[in-house]
Amino acid sequence: MRRELTSLTLPILVETLLIMTLGAVDTFMLSRHSDASVAAVGLANQIVTFTFIIFEVINLGTSVLCSQYLGASLRRRMETVIGVSIVVNLFFGLLVSASLAIWAGPILTAVGLREDMLAEGIGYMEIVGAFAFFQALQLTLSAALRSNNKAIWPMLVILVVNCLNILGNYALIFGEFGAPALGVRGAAISTATCRMVAMAILAVIVSRTILPRFPWHILRRWPRHEFRNLMKIGLPSAGEQMSYSCSQLVIAFVITSLGMEALAVRTYCVNIIMYVYLFSIAISHAGAIVIGHLVGADKWQGAYLMGRYVMRVALTRTLLFSVLIALAGTTIMTTLTDNPEIIALGVAILWIDVVLEIGRPVNILYVNVLQAAGDVNYPFYVGLIWMWSLAVVGAYIFGITFGFGILGMWWMFALDENVRAWVFIRRWESRRWQHKGFVGLDKNT
Predict the structure, then answer these.
(1) pLDDT over 90 at 8, yes or no
(2) Residue 238 and residue 57: Cα distance in Å, rounded?
(3) Alpha-carbon distance values, 169 to 65, 106, 184, 210, 337 (Å)
(4) pLDDT at 24
(5) Percent of the chain with pLDDT over 90
(6) Is the pLDDT of residue 131 over 70?
(7) pLDDT digits over 186-219, tens only?
(8) How far apart are CA 151 and CA 148, in angstroms?
(9) Cα 243–249–251 angle (5° rounding)?
(10) Is the Cβ–Cβ distance between 64 and 374 less than 8 Å?
(11) Is the pLDDT of residue 441 over 50?
(12) Angle between helices 377-386 and 224-256 (to 10 degrees)
């Protein structure tokens, strides 16, 4: 099991790194354009990413069911699940794309983007949002491949796409290689095009590896059992992510009231810090797949021990990375901006993040593995209670009411992560998540 964990973690790690870089490239390259562009694109990207939670309702269910069906040797049911996921996410992807493209202006105005940054935010969101359905299909295909122990393919695809995005950004933002200098719109065109390319390549790989023939029969007779299981897993699982993303949107709205510098430093720090917990994301996804296989095979003790092992590894690696990033904080921030206020705030936040990262890897892990084991409701309730009471209400009180600004808010984010970590550890050790798998009744069918 540890060998399987390692074989999954490494490609997922590289894939996640490249996905993060794909989004961060827009921010870092636009930092050469202006801090205002970074702030506008950062807020627009957060809204677009928030809509991706709609796709995660199906993708999370796909990952859990495929892992459990594979462990239970129910391959035909797994193929049906993949087909249902593709059809449903294509439908919702087209709806989301149309909504983001048509209502980009009203949405950004509603979340408080300043008028002098509104034009750039709308230009970016209209283009990236219009092609969000490519991302919907890309996420579905990647989830199916990873669950089938073929994580190497999404990694390689994102590697190619990342290189294309860097070249496209360089050409279209700054007008190189004979291309027009489009600024923010250039970054949006490059990002949207790269997502289309990634989806097309992954579709070919899936058709030649795990789904040689699309299950067209699902269009004649809709598989209610598989769809019901997808929703039973996906709705509470995505609900946890939606709760987190909603809280982040509210926090972004509050930070906007602190001024452009606060919004810009948040955008910079979020894009830096995500590399700190990159390893936690990778090993948590890998651990969830392995635990899903164990649950499908009714090996609950193995699942329990695997969860504890992954938690220890994720926590130690993440803490080490957070300290290294904090030590290099001044150097990193000065390469991104020459605004002394933004640099000072950014360095302080990176040190606060060291405390925050005690809890975050634990939360990332146990949300994933509890969902993989079938305990899908518990992470949603924990996130709903603690994120909103501490990370939103508490951050507002300390940051705005008490006047501690964005640093006071970040301390409350750290408290939220650590409280939730303690709650999740108690849940895993209690073993109340056992025997909640979704395929036990299907093994004799």
Answers:
(1) no
(2) 5
(3) 37, 27, 9, 34, 19
(4) 67
(5) 38
(6) yes
(7) 888 988 998 899 999 999 999 999 988 888 888 8
(8) 8
(9) 100
(10) yes
(11) no
(12) 10
CB-neighbour burial class of residue 197 (10 A; exposed 0-12, middle 13-18, buried 19+) = middle
What is the structure's pLDDT at 350? 96
DSSP code at position 404: -
Q: Does residue 445 have a pLDDT over 50?
A: no
Structural contact between residues 119 and 108, judged by C-beta atoms closer than 8 angstroms = no
* Ramachandran bin of 203, using left for φ above 0, alpha for ψ from -120 to 50, beta for the remaining angles: alpha
Contact (CB, 8 A) for 114 and 148? no
What tokens were used for 401? 């009411």
**CA–CA dist 24, 45 (Å, integer):** 10
Place of tokens 């635990």: 291
Rounded Cα distance, 122 and 108, in Å: 7
10, amino acid identity: L
CA 237-241-247 angle, to 5 degrees, is 145
Q: What is the pLDDT of residue 396?
A: 94
Q: Quick one: tokens of 208?
A: 């030649």
pLDDT tens sequence across 159-189: 888 888 889 888 888 888 888 888 888 888 9
Amino acid occupying residue 221: R
- How many residues in total does the chain contain? 445
Rounded to whole angstroms, the Cα distance separating 121 from 102 reads 14
Q: What is the pLDDT of residues 403-415, one digit of tens each?
A: 899 999 999 999 9
Q: Give the other-Cβ count within 10 Å of 219's Cβ.
A: 10
* Predicted local confidence at residue 108, as pLDDT: 87
Cα–Cα distance, 202 to 434 (Å, whole number)? 34
> In angstroms, how far is the first alpha carbon of the chain from the final one?
27
Dihedral angle of Cα 120, 253, 21, 356, to the nearest 10 degrees: 160
Tell me if 304 sits within 8 A of 26, measured CB to CB: no
E strands present in 104-184: none
Q: What is the DSSP string of 332-387?
A: HHHHH---HHHHHHHHHHHHHHHHHTTTHHHHHHHHHHHHHHT--HHHHHHHHHHI
Mean pLDDT of the chain: 87
Number of other CB atoms surrounding residue 180 within 10 Å: 10
What would the 3-class secondary structure string for 42-76 be?
Answer: HHHHHHHHHHCHHHHHHHHHHHHHHHHHHHCCCHH
Angle between helical axes of 300-327 and 340-356 (0-180°, round to 10): 150
Alpha-helical regions (H) of 257-328: 260-273, 278-296, 300-327
